[in-house]
From TrEMBL, chain A:
Single Gene Ontology MF annotation: ATP hydrolysis activity
Source taxonomy: Bacteria, Pseudomonadati, Pseudomonadota, Alphaproteobacteria, Hyphomicrobiales
Principal location: membrane
GO cellular component, one term: plasma membrane
Protein's name according to its UniProt entry: Peptide ABC transporter ATP-binding protein
Entry's localization field: Cell inner membrane
Membrane-spanning parts: none
Record has Nucleotide-binding as a keyword: yes
Domain ABC transporter: 17-267
Pfam family, one: ABC_tran
Membrane topology of the entry: Peripheral membrane protein
Transport among keywords: yes
Annotated organism of origin: Prosthecodimorpha hirschii
Biological process per Gene Ontology, one example term: peptide transport
Record's keyword terms, sorted: ATP-binding, Nucleotide-binding, Transport
Automatic annotation (TrEMBL), chain B:
Location in the cell: Cell membrane
Name recorded for this polypeptide: Peptide ABC transporter permease
Family according to the record: Belongs to the binding-protein-dependent transport system permease family.
GO biological process: peptide transport; protein transport; transmembrane transport
CDD domains cross-referenced by the UniProt entry: TM_PBP2
Species this protein is from: Prosthecodimorpha hirschii
TrEMBL record, chain C:
Key words of the record: ATP-binding, Cell membrane, Membrane, Nucleotide-binding, Transport
Gene3D superfamilies per record: P-loop containing nucleotide triphosphate hydrolases (3.40.50.300)
Keyword field contains Membrane: yes
Entry membrane topology: Peripheral membrane protein
BP GO annotations: peptide transport; transmembrane transport
SUPFAM superfamilies in alphabetical order: P-loop containing nucleoside triphosphate hydrolases
Location of the protein in the cell: Cell inner membrane
Protein name as annotated: ABC transporter
PANTHER family membership: DIPEPTIDE TRANSPORT ATP-BINDING PROTEIN DPPD (PTHR43297:SF2), OLIGOPEPTIDE TRANSPORT ATP-BINDING PROTEIN APPD (PTHR43297)
GO terms under cellular component: plasma membrane
GO molecular function: ATP binding; ATP hydrolysis activity
Family, as annotated: Belongs to the ABC transporter superfamily.
From TrEMBL, chain D:
TM helices/strands, residue ranges: 9-30, 99-124, 131-157, 169-189, 227-253, 273-298
Domain of life per record: Bacteria
PANTHER family reported for this sequence: DIPEPTIDE TRANSPORT SYSTEM PERMEASE PROTEIN DPPB-RELATED
Official protein name in the record: Glutathione ABC transporter permease
This protein's UniProt keywords: Cell membrane, Membrane, Transmembrane, Transmembrane helix, Transport
Homology family: Belongs to the binding-protein-dependent transport system permease family.
S-adenosyl-L-methionine keyword on record: no
């Protein structure tokens, strides 16, 4: 665990969003059926999201990416620690204030299929942000606004009258983006926005996001399990494993320091048959988040793990390229 | 699929079509009973009691010489009316309870559901008999009894829907926009939970008609001379050896209507593709 | 003669014809990639190979499926059933739902060897344990007695593969076997399957939507678009020199290391739905090179080098 | 599992308390009181008073409830005011009849319902499926007082196969069981059919086919267990129906039973009996749900794991 | 030698066989208990446990000679001491009135008792013959206390109670020691039937079908609807004996518009007794035109007081009272519709009848709203005194003093459902109830009282049912004529079972 931002990672942009030593636990419902069990979905995360940049978060299923996203938007409250947006603590903000803040931070969800109320028309869906924020629009303004928003994300404005089930996944995701951008937010959290789309559509959406960012001066927190995509799209890359940040790559091209990040990279399927890889670098699977091992959570799968790793949990170091590992891959090179 | 379109497309399926025709017919009879009935439903003529079906009396007459056909037409209005209003009230109450319990969760949920489960615990007929003992007999009490008897079912269903919907991304998305509880509940959750509950309500209407009939057997449903189908059947029990038509025709009316409701409801469930959502309750 | 020869395979469901005139062949010890976007007909093709189309009220409308010299298409269902599990086995996409949740995974594997190998309970279990170890399942004896929900996704998929292998099949059809898995696990499973093919002399039809997987695992590839073949050929030549504009675009959709930002474009437009398949070239609406002819008629596959390509304006012709 | 069972039992306690309070209140809300039934027409006010005092009906409701509950917890449900017997005895005397009818009807509905539902599912979409399901539905929709009399008319009067009414021999049980059971058959057949059709669409069934199993084997060896799970749930929920739901049938067939006892006593405002019966039913239902859940756990390892 | 009898809806659920405290007793009661005297259909009294009796001319002393050799089912002897114990037992019970005028009982010798009266009671023998006067064994009675009649019932009758399940059945076995049958039976005992199971069947149709199929051998009451079918049945014999019941419509004289005697009269004249008797009851029984059953002398009132259907008179009375016919046929006065409440209690017969009454009232311009209550609620409602207006109900009693029950001012609400309170009537009541010394005097007094009540239209008579019972001739053979006022032990004693 670092001491937080004061001695933390220098960033080029001003942090718009800050995690300070944030934990988030989930308790499985007890009651009739089960014993209560506590699961730590986000574990001691300290992180700055600099304005105007794309911060990527990668990690495998269940590592806490979505939880991090929800915390970022104040949709759930941290168990410990502080999440602040533009300096304001989201957990203590009043309802009305939170609503105002929400106009400036938005989220695009992983599953476009269920992110629009099936009973709403597309037009109503993209205009709902105004309703919620209490901004009244007249009939003509409504139509114009809907048209503008749909046009912005490359959709035919005539779709406004349709219900979501008439749209393809890619179209729905564009609607999701339009909705998120309706209130002109500064921060957009993108939670695996392309994961459930075909590659050809995924590429379209990524291109759209790139274009919008440039046009609207947005800050992105881009969450994905696809390291290749993150490396293509992001300025900084946060690697998570079992709720904890294990490495923060200051740039996509930075040399990898954590064995897990390495494994992640090696697992990617390079679309080039001439470069067939020895696959299976990582062995075993992610252990249950319920009973975390006492030492490094990656130790059970790590080829470099030793006794220390199994006993002492490594902390994120305070270098320009922070890593939480007893045996970082570049030990010989970069000092920490 | 929108419920309106679904109603139509269910009516076009091989199972749904005949059922829909029957239901339209019954509703038509209920609305226009006054005009369609050849006689007043309470016009007695003791000298013409228990006549078998004939040209003058299409379905025969009952023990008071009243025209059965006219009574069955009016009976549609009463039986359907009681069933529909009480189930309507039951659905509304169930929605309120279920929505609150499902949305609030935690202790509010447990408490509300404990109450609901209490009524769930007892057979509807017993609930109805006990309630009518308290409220006194009559159509109003019958309606209240049916309302209470079936409420648990809808509350549970509504709650299950709400809980399932709470996990939908669009709800989180709307919260993310800054929406409050009222907006979430009234604009998104309840409207989306409505369809299965309404369909379950429609199916329960059939049961309610039968329950009203059974209460009539104990003398507790519609008060004479109002002709609910149930009241007609129960009065006909004494006549069943002498004038079987007195009990057979109202019985047929019930059976046909209820089967039609069920078949059409089934077609509707398929059209709306909500079969598994219905089971969640 | 190849182990599996598919020709002109056309699949119908009710009024629709989601798959039209697909053909390919496959030898023992080889991996054939069947790649395409969602809805392109990959799963239906797999179901046709398994003879399971009737389950979804589908049927083979035309074409042939010759397996080891035996024609299977439109033959009595019983014929196909006898081959299932014993000679042709299936691995499905979602390990989370592919196993019976209320029976131990062990018995589910045992069942196959009991049914097809005629083994008794004890022998079947021993064989299952062997297979599970071959799948690199740790503590196989314990896992044998566990229920699916007690296992991770990767573990379940290994069980499904072990189950597929239990009947000692010649042909394995794997329908997106790794899509639902974590990246790291995905890599392990694909590797495992390729190793098995080589080691046991199996033939594998590997269905995927990921050109990366194809590049890493397959010997030959069939690229489907909207129910038709766009291009088919050996993996090396397809990646080195794709002839169909779609194939090239598809490869281009995957960001590669060091790719500059803003260069990822994707394919404009969207895959047509089953109900609005055009009569002409189905890719034409999204194709940068589409001509009037492309919007008038459907191209038939033609041989270009080692590949077959269905396009009026193939790329790199003569290259 | 045992721990789960104990916890469930403990959780039943507050539910039991709430239920008993509601039961007590409801019973005392009913207008009229048992004294009316004991008094000859035109009795004096003093006499009323005296009787009220004798049965404790003159005390505040809360006190009455507390006394009743205290006794109830020791298994003493008091003495019937009109029927002059310990309520427990009355319940015990009627319970066997309710159980005999309820359990046989349950068995009948389950066996027939599951078979019919399974057959319909096996031939789903065929004319057999449609005719059988519609027929069952039709039968279940007839009010039971009529169905009961019809049964008597056909099987007892015309065919002379069974006694018309009463509960004096095993064969007197047949017609009531049929009458009660038909509704259950319809319910269970529909649940079973739907369950079969639904599991048949799950992924793992595709894989069973892919293993080369015959349709028959898949259906009867594999799907059955899945299809029975919702049936078990329904059965657990229907315990109240087993114990007290057959009032009409008891009435038509002149059979004893908890339902009839309850209704008769309600008519006579015999409070202790009504309270006792309702409490009994409520407890039956609570236990029924518990047993249903346990059965569910026995059938489904996922549920089992959630419980431990 | 074993038979099954069935009692139907009305008697179902009778909770006990304790004649002293019970308010309801079922037909099986008479098989367990004997009374001192029995009344025959012709109203004459016959010795039963009392071999003979005597009264002093002033009516102040009655001496009863008891039959020797009588034993209770538990072996206890029946003697004068039993009577001495028995009569005071009624004090404070709901049946106290039957012996209320007995001051004390004197044991003259082992088999002789003398009743010393507070006042003469011409009705004493009638009271002693009522079914509540079955004599229980003092030993068993005292031993069982509250539970007497439920767990056990011990009398001297021809049958012993073996088992009683409320609402279900009573099993009776023959009392082999019984030799003291009355002169109303040919067979003085023991009974020829060995065992009787008396079943309670709430659904009339079921009971009917049981009789038809031989499931039961005798039905104590047969619903009129089933009579034609039963009569057609070869193996079933239907018997009708004079009824003990009157069905009538009480009119709440204190509830507007029935405070107006013209409106009361109009309602009374609207009831068409004849068509009800004919079409609803198939001509079985009699029409009722007064309050008392026709076999009573007090029922033979001056024809001008008898109330029978007269629609014209009814309409005319309403016109006179200011109720004018409205467009829908319902009358109205000063803008108020002639809308009245018509109640009845649950029971097939009442439910049917009330509908006819409603329709007949409508014919003259009353709109009557029916409510059907369960039996216990309706009395509670009557007692509120303000809620009810018209009702359809019945009573079963074979003595004129019933007029006092239902019309004495002190019993307003219930049983005086008419809330009848009239000085002249009260005066006539006192005379009839307390001032009659002889039977004839009593008859005259009650007749006057009866006529006056009729003249005030406090009720409308409707119907006098007959007692109809039926039995299966396959198993049972009953005497041709039924002695006594009801089907009781004297007839069953003579009953024979074939095979
Ligand atoms: N509401 C919740 N209640 C209980 N547990 C939760 C809840 N939300 C998340 N979790 C658990 O927290 C852990 C992290 O979940 P999260 O959704 O953040 O992971 P993720 O990285 O987004 O995974 P994925 O790639 O599958 O989306 C998981 O183990 C998950 O089961
Ligand atoms: N049971 C069915 N009934 C009707 N249409 C179907 C059915 N199954 C598949 N289809 C249609 O057939 C087409 C091809 O489906 P298929 O499942 O083979 O696609 P796929 O390539 O496997 O796609 P995915 O990548 O989404 O799995 C799709 O348009 C689909 O909608
Ligand atoms: Mg996530
Ligand atoms: Mg697929």
């Amino acid at each position: 665990m670092t001491d937080g931002l004061t001695t933390g990672v220098p960033t080029t942009g001003v942090p718009i969003l800050r995690f300070e030593d944030v934990n988030r636990d989930f308790t499985t419902p007890g009651g009739w059926f089960a014993r209560r069990r506590v699961l730590r979905a986000v574990n001691a995360v300290t992180l700055d999201v600099p304005a105007g940049r794309v911060t990527g978060v990668v990690g495998e299923s269940g590592c806490g990416k979505s939880t991090l996203a929800r915390l970022a938007l104040g949709l759930i409250k941290p168990t410990d620690g502080r999440v602040s947006f533009e300096g304001e603590d989201l957990a203590t903000a009043r309802r009305a204030r939170l609503r105002q803040l929400r106009a400036r931070m938005q989220m695009v969800f992983q599953d476009p299929y269920s992110s629009i109320d099936p009973r709403m028309t597309i037009g109503d869906a993209v205009l709902e942000p105004f309703v919620v924020q209490g901004i009244r629009l007249t009939g003509a303004a409504r139509a114009a606004k809907a048209e503008a928003l749909l046009g912005m994300v490359g959709l035919d404005p005539s779709l406004a009258r349709n219900h979501p089930h008439h749209l393809s996944g890619g179209q729905k995701q564009r609607v999701g983006i339009a909705r998120a951008l309706a209130l002109e937010p500064r921060l957009v959290v993108l939670d695996e926005p392309t994961a459930s789309l075909d590659v050809s559509i995924q590429a379209q959406i990524v291109a759209l996001l790139e274009a919008l960012k440039a046009r609207l001066d947005l800050t992105y927190l881009f969450i994905s399990h696809d390291l290749a995509l993150v490396r293509y799209f992001c300025d900084r890359i946060v690697v998570m494993y079992l709720g904890a940040v294990v490495e923060i790559l200051p740039s996509p091209a930075a040399p990898i320091r954590h064995p897990y990040t390495r494994a992640l990279l090696d697992s990617a399927f390079v679309p080039d048959p001439t470069r067939r890889q020895t696959l299976a670098r990582a062995t075993g699977e992610i252990p249950s988040a319920f009973d975390l091992p006492p030492g490094c959570v990656y130790a059970p799968r790590c080829p470099l793990a030793d006794e220390t790793c199994r006993r002492i949990r490594p902390q994120l170091d305070r270098s320009a390229h922070p890593v939480a590992c007893h045996h970082p891959l570049d030990r010989a090179g970069a000092g920490s | 699929m929108a419920i309106g379109t679904a109603l139509l497309s269910a009516a076009r399926t091989p199972r749904g079509a005949p059922a829909a025709i029957v239901l339209v017919g019954v509703v038509f009879a209920a609305i226009f009973a006054d005009r369609l009935a050849p006689y007043a439903y309470d016009m007695q003529s003791l000298m013409q009691a228990n006549l078998p079906p004939s040209a003058a009396h299409l379905l025969g007459t009952d023990e008071f010489g009243r025209d059965l056909f006219s009574r069955i037409l009016h009976g549609a209005r009463i039986s359907l009316g009681v069933a529909v209003t009480s189930i309507g009230a039951s659905v509304a109450l169930g929605l309120v309870f279920g929505a609150i319990a499902g949305y609030a969760g935690g202790w509010a949920d447990r408490l509300l559901m404990a109450v609901v489960d209490l009524t769930w615990a007892f057979p509807e007929i017993l609930i109805a008999l006990v309630l009518i003992a308290i409220l006194g007999p009559g159509l109003g009490s019958t309606a209240v009894a049916i309302t209470v008897g079936y409420m648990a079912q809808f509350a549970r269903l509504a709650r299950a829907q709400i809980i399932a919907l709470k996990g939908e991304t669009y709800i989180e998305a709307t919260v993310g926009l800054g929406a409050g509880h009222a907006h979430i509940l009234l604009r998104h959750l309840v409207p989306n939970a409505l369809t299965p509950v309404l369909v379950a309500g429609m199916l329960a209407t059939g049961d309610a008609i039968v329950l009203e009939a059974t209460l009539g057997y104990f003398g507790l449903g519609a008060q004479p001379p109002l002709p609910s189908w149930g009241a007609m059947m129960s009065a006909g029990v004494g006549q069943m050896f002498l004038a079987p038509w007195v009990i057979v025709f109202p019985g047929l009316a019930i059976a046909i209507t209820v089967v039609a409701i069920n078949l059409y409801g089934d077609a509707l469930i398929d059209a709306l593709q909500i079969r598994n959502r219905l089971r969640e309750g | 003669m190849a182990l599996l020869e598919v020709e002109g395979l056309t699949i119908g469901i009710g009024r629709f014809t989601p798959v039209q005139e697909i053909g390919f062949s496959l030898d023992r010890g080889a991996v054939l990639g069947l790649v395409g976007e969602s809805g392109s007909g990959k799963s239906l093709t797999a179901m046709a190979l398994m003879g399971l189309l009737p389950l979804i009220r589908g049927e083979v409308r035309a074409g042939s499926i010759v397996f080891d010299g035996v024609e299977l298409a439109n033959r009595p269902a019983e014929l196909h059933r006898r081959l299932r599990g014993r000679r042709i086995a299936l691995v499905t996409q979602n390990p989370m739902t592919s196993l019976d949740p209320i029976r131990t995974v062990g018995t589910q594997i045992d069942e196959v060897s009991r049914l097809h190998g005629g083994l008794d309970g004890r022998a079947a279990k021993a064989r299952s344990l062997d297979l599970m170890e071959a799948m690199r399942i740790p503590r196989a004896a314990v896992v044998h007695g566990q229920y699916p929900h007690q296992l991770s996704g990767g573990m379940k998929q290994r069980i499904v593969i072990a189950m597929a292998l239990a009947g000692d099949p010649d042909l394995l059809v794997a329908d997106e076997p790794t899509t639902a898995l974590d990246v790291t696990v995905q890599a392990q499973i694909v590797r495992l399957m390729v190793d098995l093919v080589k080691a046991r002399g199996l033939a594998l039809v590997l269905i995927t939507h990921d050109m990366g997987v194809v590049a890493q695992a397959c010997d030959r590839v069939v690229v489907l678009y909207a129910g038709r073949i766009a291009e088919a050929g050996p993996v090396e030549s397809i990646f080195a020199a794709p002839h169909h504009p779609y194939t090239r675009a598809l490869i281009g959709c995957i960001p590669v290391e060091g790719q500059a930002r803003g260069t990822l474009i994707g394919i404009p437009g969207q895959v047509p739905g089953l109900t609005d398949y055009p009569a002409h070239c189905r890719f034409a609406p999204r194709c940068p090179a589409a001509s009037a002819r492309c919007r008038a008629e459907a191209p038939a596959p033609a041989t270009i080098g080692a590949s077959r390509v269905a396009c009026f304006h193939p790329l790199g012709r003569g290259a | 599992m045992l721990g789960y069972f104990v916890r469930r039992l403990i959780m039943l306690l507050p539910v039991f308390l709430a239920m008993s309070a509601i039961v007590f209140l409801i019973v005392h809300l009913v207008p009229g009181d048992p004294i009316d039934h004991m008094l000859q027409i035109g009795a004096s006010a003093e006499r009323r008073q005296e009787l009220a005092a004798k049965f404790g009906l003159d005390r505040p409701l809360v006190v009455q409830y507390a006394l009743w509950l205290k006794a109830a917890l020791t298994g003493d449900l008091g003495e019937a005011i009109i029927l002059k017997q310990p309520v427990v005895d009355l319940i015990l005397a009627n319970l066997p009849y309710s159980l005999a009818l309820g359990l046989s009807a349950l068995l009948f509905s389950t066996v027939v319902g599951v078979s019919v539902g399974a057959a319909a599912a096996y031939f789903a979409g065929s004319w057999f499926d449609r005719v059988v399901m519609a027929g069952i539905l039709m039968g279940s929709m007839l009010p039971s007082f009529w169905l009961g009399l019809l049964m008597i008319l056909i099987f007892a009067v015309e065919l002379g196969l069974f006694p018309v009414s009463g509960a004096r021999s095993w064969d007197a049980l047949v017609l009531p069981v049929l009458t009660v059971g038909i509704g259950g058959v319809a319910l269970i057949a529909r649940v079973t059919r739907a369950a079969f059709v639904e599991v048949a669409q799950q992924d793992f069934v595709t894989l069973l086919h892919a293993k080369g199993l015959t349709r028959r084997r898949i259906f009867f060896r594999h799907l059955v267990r899945h299809a029975l799970m919702p049936v078990v749930t329904i059965l657990g929920l229907k315990v109240g129906w087993i114990l007290g739901g057959a009032v009409t049938v008891e009435y038509v067939f002149a059979r004893p039973g908890l339902g009839s006892l309850l209704i008769t006593s309600l008519g006579q405002r015999d409070y202790p009996v009504v309270q006792g019966c309702l409490l009994m039913l409520g407890m039956g239902v609570m236990l029924g749900t518990l047993v249903g859940d346990l059965a569910q756990a026995a059938m489904d390892p996922r549920v089992r794991d959630r419980m431990s | 030698q074993e038979v099954t009898f069935a009692i139907t809806a009305r008697e179902v659920g009778t909770p006990s066989y304790n004649p002293i405290t019970a308010t309801r007793l079922n037909s099986a009661n008479s098989l367990i208990y004997d009374r001192l005297v029995l009344q025959d259909a012709d109203q004459s009294f016959h010795p039963s446990l009392a071999a003979s009796w005597d009264q002093t001319p002033d009516g102040m002393q009655w001496t009863f000679k008891l039959r020797p050799g009588v034993k209770f089912h538990d072996g206890e002897p029946f003697n004068a001491k039993v009577i001495e114990w028995w009569v005071p037992k009624f004090a404070g019970t709901e049946n106290a009135d039957t012996v209320a005028k007995v001051d004390r009982v004197e044991v003259v010798d082992d088999l002789t008792v003398r009743f010393h009266m507070k006042a003469p009671d011409p009705n004493l023998l009638f009271n002693l013959a009522s079914s509540f006067m079955g004599i229980p064994s003092p030993k068993a009675y005292e031993a069982l206390g509250d539970k007497y009649g439920v767990t056990a019932a011990v009398g001297t009758g021809p049958f012993k109670m073996e088992k009683f399940t409320v609402g279900q059945q009573t099993v009776l076995v023959r009392n082999d020691d019984f030799t003291w049958g009355s002169d109303l039976s040919v067979n003085r005992g023991p009974a020829k039937i060995k065992k009787i199971t008396v079943r309670e069947i709430p659904e009339d149709s079921t009971a009917f079908l049981e009789l038809q199929t031989g499931g039961v051998d005798l039905l104590y009451t047969v619903p009129v609807d089933f009579m034609p079918r039963l009569k057609a049945e070869k193996s079933v014999k239907v018997m009708t004996i004079p009824g003990t019941e009157i069905v009538y419509m009480p009119i709440n004289t204190q509830s507007a518009p029935f405070t107006d005697i013209k409106v009361r009269a109009a309602a009374a004249y609207a009831i068409d007794q004849k068509s009800i008797w004919q079409s609803l009851y198939g001509g079985v029984g009699n029409t009722a035109n007064g309050f008392l059953i026709s076999s009573l002398q007090e029922a033979k009132v001056d024809p001008k007081f008898a109330i029978s259907y007269d629609p014209e008179r009814s309409k005319k009375l309403l016109d006179e009272a200011g109720w004018k016919v409205g467009p829908d046929g319902i009358r109205a006065k000063d803008g108020a519709r002639l809308q009245v409440k018509l109640w009845t209690s649950n029971g097939t017969e009442f439910k049917r009848l009330v509908e006819v009454v409603q329709s007949q009232l409508k014919a003259v311009g009353f709109a009557a709203d029916i409510t059907i209550f369960d039996a216990s609620t309706i009395n509670a409602q009557y007692k509120k005194k303000t809620e009810h207006q018209l009702a359809v109900r019945s009573y079963s009693w074979t003595n004129a003093d019933i007029i006092d029950w239902f019309f004495a001012a002190r019993r307003a609400g219930y049983p005086n459902v008419s809330l009848f309170d009239d000085p002249k009537a009260e005066e006539l009541n006192v005379t009839a109830m307390t001032k009659s010394r002889t039977w004839d005097e009593r008859v005259a007094n009650f007749k006057a009282y009866h006529e006056y009540i009729l003249s005030q239209y406090a009720f409308a008579p409707i119907y006098e049912p007959a007692n109809v019972f039926a039995y299966s001739t396959r198993r049972l053979k009953l005497p041709e004529t039924i002695r006594g006022t009801r089907l009781t032990s004297q007839t069953i004693l003579d009953a024979q079972v074939s095979n």
